[in-house]
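ARCHIVE ENTRY
Sequence with per-residue tokens
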Amino acid sequence: MEEEKDQLSRRNFLAIATGAIGGLIGIVMAIPAVAYVVGPALQRRTAENWVRLGPTSKVELGIPTLFKTIIESQTGWIVAEEEISVYVLTEDGREYIALSNICTHLGCRVRWITDQGQYFCPCHNAAFDKTGEVVAGPPPSPLDRYETKVEEDQLYILLGG
């Protein structure tokens, strides 16, 4: 009879020890996983994400000028670089319009055709005027605009603001 009690208590001890070790391992593995998922939401984001394009002297009056820049984004531990292209237009040298070069129809890249005075999208022959408004084709909306600012003769656009 005593042997049965000893075996039962050993079994209970082993069951409790196995459960405790498994629970400890689970907690140790869960903490980094939760930090990875919840961490970005808890980080303070800057209210403004201004990206420098280049000097304002590069922009000719009345002619859209293409600027390219590389931006970095971080998700968890992964850092990705992305090149963005923006057309900048000014009629007076003081007010600037910055337009995405991505068509709002299927995301193809548009290019400025000086002879026609339009942006042209080769995917479905879409066309946009100088200010990004749809002139022809299937795009549902004008080209996306970025807010701009000028500091010390450098042109900046606001991303994700």
Observations:
- The chain is about 25% helix and 35% strand.
- The mean pLDDT is 86.
- The chain has two domains: 1-43, 50-158.
- Residues 50-158 form a domain with the Rieske Iron-sulfur Protein fold (CATH 2.102.10.10).
